[in-house]
């Protein structure tokens, strides 16, 4: 299927590793010009160097810490000076684990700025060129925790649920401008983040990481963790022309782990 991404420009936030890197690489392979943004530019440059020659030239690295409003503004200024982007993938690293009864107020505020408020602002700034062209894609990576809260991830469950409300509201506001707004909800995709969470849960319960992983897999109908490429393929479809009538949706990529309908 031709996704129609040739000559499109995309910004992928949180692209140094894991899901963000997989998304950025996949969009570039589909023909898009990709701005891969993260705090660790050196990590982005490392995976860019490993891409096929014909793809490598379509990707450039940008410095972006979503917790730093000045950096958010600088990235927006740079991209708007070049005409903006057609595709925006909002993706932030997960916050520290913790239970709701213990997370302190300052942690809520700090993480909300990084995971929500500054992404809302970045999106708002990049919207006008999409509206002028009557074409745009805004895709936000969240978590299956917004449908089925995940134990020991109070910050993620709470803040990403707020992002869901924003995303659905924005989708309604810009649909007539040819802009789609969707969320993608990863389950247990095999990334460094999942490894860290498994270790945190193992430490909390005083069991081995292997036991935690085995327990998690036993609850996934597919019987395994997902691969980053499987997740990125769904994002690439939503970013493309064929998904022009999909908006205001939240799509699970979790191997069937979420049991609710």
Automatic annotation (TrEMBL):
It comes from the Bacteria. Gene3D superfamilies: NAD(P)-binding Rossmann-like Domain. Coiled coil: none annotated. Pfam families: adh_short_C2. Belongs to the short-chain dehydrogenases/reductases (SDR) family. PANTHER family: 3-OXOACYL-(ACYL-CARRIER-PROTEIN) REDUCTASE, NADPH-DEPENDENT REDUCTASE BACG. This is 3-oxoacyl-ACP reductase.
